[in-house]
Design goal:
Mean pLDDT: 77
Oligomer: single chain
Largest sheet: 6 strands, antiparallel
Number of domains: 2
Distance between the termini: 48 Å
Helix content: 25-40%
Strand order of the largest sheet: 1-5-6-3-2-4
CATH architecture of the largest domain: 3-Layer(aba) Sandwich
Number of strands: 10
Amino acid sequence: MATDVTQREALTQLGASTAEAVARVLEMFVPDGVERGEVTVIPETLDPFANLPVGGIAASVRYVDGVTGGNVFIMPHTCARTLATAMGAEGDEGPLNELEMSAIGEASNQMLASAAAAISVVIGQEIEISPPDVRILDGRTDAVDVWGRAPFACSTSFTIAGEPCRLVQLVPSAFVVRMARAIDELTMEQSAIGDFPGAQSSSRDDSEGALPLDQTLNQINLRFWAELGRTQLPIGEALELPVGAVLDLDRTADSPVDLFVNGLCFGYGHLLVTEDGEWAIEVQSLSKPSVRRPSLVGGAGLADPTDTMKGNI
């Protein structure tokens, strides 16, 4: 017999699954420096964005498939700098520079994409999200104007390198309904197993309706591409380029190419041609993911796989 799952139980499970996915990505960048706190369901009468850290950073994505809501990760300035530095983007004291903001944006992209994937798993529906928006918070930030409203909200606390952060989820009604249904179905399956003689009793996590994420997160698709080289052009020259023009890049033909995953440079390799005549990449070295410094002139800084040569490992 199905259990009567409350909205609070559904929101708590949804928040826990999402926060777990975010924590796993954060631990890639700050090993042993991430702690996840409890999920708090925020009453409708309270503001989920109360006490925003002035000067801090908010990274957010919106759901774009016919539902209202999204995920917002909020961190103080010092934590944002710690995250950027861990990803290889260093800056001086004071405001975050362009490279640091870029690094935070790439980390947020991976965090919030993983969060959306986790939600997809637990509600059984693919979730589409917008590109991440990263902004510096100030006293004039209007949460409703920036992130909108949703029928439900929950918040999960995090500590990154000793600094308090939080993940705020604006949850559509449809997600709560599907989450409650998923918990009911899981409970029914566990009850059926328990009816058989010799059946093992459920673990504490199973009895609470927790859905394992290990195998699912391992199946998340990431953007991979290889960058052959860069150059810089004044915008006037770029607009007047004729068909057949040849541009010199900053590397020779036999130089290694940079390998990127979701905007982070993680290694180097050489181009190969397979027996089928297709391009491939032979990985020759791996390193800690880092952000390539953006070009200051022209369009040499490539941030999308459609702007670069894709590779296969």
